[in-house]
Write a structure and sequence with these properties.
Elements: H1 2-30, H2 32-46, H3 51-61, H4 69-93, E1 97-98, E2 101-102, H5 104-114, H6 120-144, H7 150-178, H8 186-212, H9 217-244, H10 247-250, H11 256-259, H12 265-273, H13 276-288, H14 293-305, H15 308-329, H16 338-350
Antiparallel strand pairs: 1-2
Helix pairs in contact: 1-2, 1-3, 1-4, 3-4, 3-8, 4-6, 4-8, 5-6, 7-8, 8-9, 9-15, 12-15, 15-16
Length: 353
């Protein structure tokens, strides 16, 4: 399965390299930051696994043996959108590390320190916001360069515009939840998972690929159902990795989401199941803005002691079963690619970063 995605990653990287190279001269004419930000954006985007971009190609291939160029362009756009979200996310979450390296805004913050700027942190955050915005615009430029029927190109752009809007609104909810002392309802956390991560990570690229292969709305709706489930499973696994993973694997401090009081199924069930004493300490940790190794160990031990992981795994198993059934029932033109999609589900469950 990963052979397919690694192959598409190489193709998308080549496309982005060519795309960025063509932008260099006009950007550099404006000022030195034009070339600088393109270099950093290419490096930052290329460092990801590019699963979203690969999904566009996979779903194109499920329905077409035609020229894959437009699917690669849509895949590259998805990765530029992902970079934009991550750059802005790290600023909002105050994460100085991403994939084991200084996060995008922090790179500029360090540059500000080397140049003895009066407020290097603000400089880094401001430059990061600009870079994230630019990555969105470049993504849409990449989409508009597709050679497909103009109506399909318009539909693809509309789909991406709508979904990015959904992610932004969900991110606002995430920021709001992070300032609440009480956990929101389970249904609200589920909706956050779906619109902040799930849909644009899976449903959107999957539907884009099928759209470029000429599939109709009925097929796109079936694909969306699968993507939504895969996206929620992916986010729940992300929460698990954030709590139980190793910093060397995930590329950022374990418990960084705890520090920002990010709401998750884990915290929701903890608050519901904890004793009064445990709940009081948990709230103190979540609202302190600082998280120690001891605090993380306390939360991990509570999750295991109260069997929160078993409750969440039970929910995930229901979604996994639904996903497998929907994948098996999905009408496709080239079933040899179905196994890659099934493998992606297994990968999502077994990944450690």
């Amino acid at each position: 399965m990963m052979d397919f995605f690694n192959s598409q990653k190489k193709n998308i990287e080549l496309l982005l390299k060519e795309f960025f190279s063509k932008k260099q001269s006009s950007f550099r004419e404006i000022n030195k930051w034009g070339g600088d930000v393109l270099k950093r954006l290419y490096s930052f985007t290329s460092a990801g696994k590019m699963i979203r971009g690969g999904l566009v190609v996979l779903f194109f291939r499920l329905y077409s043996k035609g020229n894959v160029d437009d699917a690669l362009r849509a895949g590259a756009a998805m990765e530029l959108f992902q970079s934009a979200f991550l750059i802005h996310d790290d600023i909002m979450d105050r994460d100085n590390m991403r994939r084991g390296k200084p996060s995008f805004f922090y790179q500029y913050g360090l540059l500000g320190e080397r140049n003895a700027f009066s407020d290097p942190i603000h400089f880094g955050e401001s430059m990061g916001i600009c870079a994230g915005d630019l990555s969105f615009f470049l993504g849409f430029e990449m989409l508009s360069s597709m050679k497909a029927n103009p109506e399909i190109v318009r539909r693809a752009i509309d789909m991406c515009t709508e979904e990015i809007g959904f992610v932004t609104i969900a991110q606002m909810q995430d920021v709001y939840f992070g300032n609440l002392k009480e956990s929101p309802e389970e249904k609200d956390i589920l909706k956050l998972y779906l619109y902040k991560t799930g849909r644009y990570t899976f449903s959107l690229p999957m539907k884009l690929g099928a759209l470029l292969a000429g599939r109709d709305e009925e097929i796109l709706a079936k694909i969306e159902r699968i993507g939504n489930l895969l996206g929620i499973i992916f986010q729940i696994k992300d929460d698990e990795i954030g709590l139980f993973g190793e910093e060397s694997e995930i590329g950022k401090p374990v418990g960084s989401d705890i520090k920002e009081n990010k709401k998750s199924f884990y915290l929701y069930y903890l608050e519901k199941s904890a004793s009064t004493r445990q709940r009081t300490r948990l709230k103190n940790i979540l609202t302190s803005g600082k998280v120690s190794v001891k605090d993380i160990s306390f939360i991990r031990d509570m999750i295991l002691e109260l069997e929160i992981n078993k409750k969440i795994n039970s929910k995930m198993n229901e979604m996994i079963s639904q996903s497998r059934t929907l994948i098996e029932e999905l009408p496709v033109s080239y079933p040899e690619y179905r196994g890659i999609l099934e493998g992606l589900l297994d990968y999502s469950l077994n990944r450690n970063k």
